[in-house]
């Protein structure tokens, strides 16, 4: 797992990507900019992202098709997508965006403060989710340690019961407990 939240920026126009990177400055997110849907799908195989800012209208594979591929993949289906478009406020395009899994659909020119606020929310959610995953991992490790120690105690008790009166039984039982405790 990575420590830094990342935002995938997808737009076929380099100047739009530079503008998005500038808008996101100062937010605890690392922008990763790509210029096509195909490049976005490749990038999603390499990294995990807190949010995707996706241009709706691109040549070859448009944003809607790209989003469809993203949402069909198990690894990426839960990554929030915010569509960005220069198209007029055609409600059919917005509905199409939501129907392929977008969490929002913004038209250009973008209000940079609104976009920053939306990205910040998803970065915060990503960070909290990462903390929960780490805590769950810690709990699983402790449960495994507990199970190992419990097994060692049970084995030691059996050794002591079966070896009643045998001085070496105590030494064997202690060895089992020490081995379990130190993981040797």
Automatic annotation (TrEMBL):
Q: Which residues carry this modification: 4-aspartylphosphate?
A: 55
- Keywords (A to Z) from UniProt: Phosphoprotein
- Record-level GO BP terms: phosphorelay signal transduction system
Top-rank taxon, per record: Bacteria
Ranges of residues in domain Response regulatory: 6-123
InterPro entries, alphabetically?
Bact_response_regulator (IPR050595), CheY-like_superfamily (IPR011006), Sig_transdc_resp-reg_receiver (IPR001789)
Could you tell me which PANTHER family the record lists for this protein? Answer: RESPONSE REGULATORY DOMAIN-CONTAINING PROTEIN, STRESS RESPONSE REGULATOR PROTEIN 1
Identification of the protein by name: PleD family two-component response regulator
> Which organism encodes this protein?
Catenuloplanes atrovinosus
């Amino acid at each position: 797992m990575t420590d830094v939240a990342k935002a995938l920026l997808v737009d076929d126009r380099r100047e739009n990507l530079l503008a998005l990177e500038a808008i996101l400055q100062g937010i605890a997110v690392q922008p990763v900019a790509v210029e096509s849907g195909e490049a976005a799908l490749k990038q999603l195989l390499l990294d995990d992202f807190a949010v995707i800012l996706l241009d709706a209208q691109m040549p070859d594979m448009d944003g809607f098709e790209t989003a469809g591929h993203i949402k069909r993949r198990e690894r990426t289906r839960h990554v929030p997508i915010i569509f960005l478009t220069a198209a007029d406020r055609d409600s059919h395009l917005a509905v199409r965006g939501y129907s392929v899994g977008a969490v929002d659909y913004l038209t250009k020119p973008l209000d940079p403060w609104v976009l920053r606020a939306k990205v910040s929310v998803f970065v915060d959610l990503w960070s909290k989710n990462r903390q929960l995953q780490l805590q769950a991992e810690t709990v699983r490790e402790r449960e495994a340690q507990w199970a190992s120690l419990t097994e060692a105690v049970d084995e030691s008790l059996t050794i002591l019961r079966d070896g009643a009166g045998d001085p070496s039984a105590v030494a064997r039982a202690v060895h089992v407990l020490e081995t379990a405790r130190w993981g040797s």
